[in-house]
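4.2 Preliminary Data

To establish feasibility before requesting continued support, the project team ran the inverse folding procedure on a target of 134 residues. The structure was first converted into the token representation described in Section 3, and no sequence information of any kind was made available to the design step. The complete token record follows.
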């Protein structure tokens, strides 16, 4: 084994020292990605990976820099932007991406994007109209 191979193995053992943790948080993230539109909570997410919800919170924050809830909200906002761009109403979008209240959806959307869902949609639709004219 060459010096470089030894160094690669040494670095790999440090970076990937706990592959189980990495696989756990990736599994949770993938579950959120595929099920962002349903009611997700810590108990459900931790049961999926058979892990304590508090340990799951620490691991997720360690690897992704945010809690699963924050990640879920970001995913829902991202998906709602897509739907609003496609002309789907604000109310339909709100419930389609998993929010239970139009008020909380609008407040979170404005906090994350700086615009209300209606303002965002109008802006996107006018951009699309201008782009079609050229």
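Position-by-position output of the design step:
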């Amino acid at each position: 084994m060459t010096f470089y191979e030894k160094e690669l193995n040494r670095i790999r053992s440090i970076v990937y020292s706990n592959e189980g943790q990495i696989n756990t948080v990736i599994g949770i993230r993938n579950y959120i990605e595929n099920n962002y539109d349903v009611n997700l909570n810590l108990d459900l997410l931790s049961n999926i990976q058979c892990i304590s919800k508090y340990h799951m919170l620490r691991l997720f924050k360690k690897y992704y820099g945010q809690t699963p809830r924050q990640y879920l909200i970001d995913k829902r906002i991202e998906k709602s932007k897509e739907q609003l761009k496609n002309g789907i109403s604000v109310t339909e979008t709100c419930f389609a991406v998993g929010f239970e209240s139009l008020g909380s959806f609008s407040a979170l959307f404005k906090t994350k994007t700086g615009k209300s869902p209606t303002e965002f949609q109008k802006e996107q639709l006018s951009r699309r109209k201008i782009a079609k004219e050229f």
